[in-house]
Amino acid sequence: MKRLYSVLGVAENASDADIKKAYRKLAKQYHPDLHPGEATAEGKFKDVSGAFAILGDPEKRKRYDAGEIDDSGAEMPERGFYRHHAGDPGARKYQTRQEYTGDPDLGSVFEDLFGAGRRPGGGFGGQRMRGQDVTYMLTIDFMTAVSGDKQTVALPDGQQLAVTIPAGTKDGQRLRLRGKGLPGRGDAPAGDAFIDISVRPHPVFRREGDDIHIDLPITIDEAALGAKVAVPTIDGEVKVTIPAAAKTGQTLRLKGRGVPAPGSARGDQFVHLTIAMPPKIDAELADFLRGWRERHGYDPRSQPKTAQAV
Amino acid sequence: MAWITRQRLVRLIAPLDERDLDLWISERWVDPSPDGAGGDRFTEVDVARAMMIRDLRHDLDVPDDAIAIVLDLLDQLSGARSQLESLMEAVARQDRETRRKIAEICRLRLDQ
Lengths: 310, 112
Description:
The complex is a heterodimer of chains A (310) and B (112). Chain A has 310 residues and is an alpha+beta fold. Chain A has helices at 3-8, 16-30, 41-55, 58-65, 82-85, 107-114, 123-129, 142-147, 220-225, 283-296; strands spanning 134-140, 149-154, 160-165, 174-177, 193-199, 206-208, 211-219, 227-233, 236-242, 251-254, 269-276. Chain A has 10 helices and 11 strands. In chain A, the strands form 4 sheets. Chain A has a 4-stranded mixed sheet. Chain A has a 3-stranded mixed sheet with strand order 1-5-4. In chain B, 68% of the residues lie in helices and 7% in strands. Chain B contains 5 helices and 3 strands; from the N terminus they run βααββααα. Chain B has helices at residues 6-12, 18-26, 44-59, 64-92, 96-110; strands at residues 3-4, 33-34, 40-43. In chain B, a hairpin with a 5-residue loop joins strand 2 and strand 3 (40-43). Chain B is elongated, with a radius of gyration of 20 Å. Chain A binds chain B through residues 70, 77, 79-82, 84-88, 90-91, 93-98, 113-114, 122-124, 127, 133, 135, 148, 164-166, 170, 172-176, 178, 192, 194, 261-264, and chain B through 1, 5-8, 11, 18-19, 22, 25-26, 28, 31, 34, 37-40, 43-45, 47-49, 51-52, 72, 74-76, 78-83, 85-87, 90.
């Protein structure tokens, strides 16, 4: 299903009225000003209003359905069929030049016109002469995968292989090193080396798509009163403001602190707060709380009024 | 020549994903050029080819080993067509009498 429809939770053949209704409902649910404590509201609201900007406009919706524009409204290149390009100079690398296998009297004519049948570089005949590909496995650190790096890898046969790991490399990704495979026959080119990447998990950072997630323990006083705390990011520490009355499970979003993704916007870092009790409850705190709860007790386990009796 | 990044191409081949593209590249069904920073550049030709493979795989449900055969035949055909076109251009540049003789032999042989 086209993504924008699932963002609004409607079927692809939904009426314009249904789409408007779905948008209104979600907008109320996620509008950041109506939910000031919700850190993820802004992101969700932007997603939903972005979807409505296209699906709510009949002209744009038509173009989106036809594949002329993408999720963000950008023009899609008109789909070209391969046969339009099959004869282009840029397609020569894919072509197989033919040997002549018919009437032997005509073989020399063919050679005069088109040269000898086998061409080292081209297509299936050529592929047999080009060197074989090899595949290696490489395990790298989380930070190396995220920021990119140039590494020299020692191969089993003693050779060295220089590998450029692009920034934003994902676990399971396959890198291709042209010409670093086994040598070809005669003057044929060498095959390629493929590197299957495994990324070691990081003790602090977790990656989900282009976003980074961390769990941040905070003290009860930081949660109650708010505070400015140092938070690790892949670029180093940043100071983040914890809002007063912070809850366990609350998420703060640090925009642009996620994984760099070549060719698109950088992801975000999400900081999940957990409130950590002090290692020891001292007598002073215990006395204070006993008195405090007489006047300010609250029940976090109470059932909401709308819950049905079981 | 115009080109797009791997990221963009992966979106175009949806619902197939990056692992599919990696497979097609290691099989040489799609052969992008390097961008100098460890990544790939996909020209219009590469994109059209990737879309064709996507159509075969996803819309027409063609299994991978059959795709290899289809592409091989297609590439042989393109090769043969290029040769034919270069021959046609050579013939086109001949005088009328020569062209007539060539055409006569062609038709005779093809109508056999």
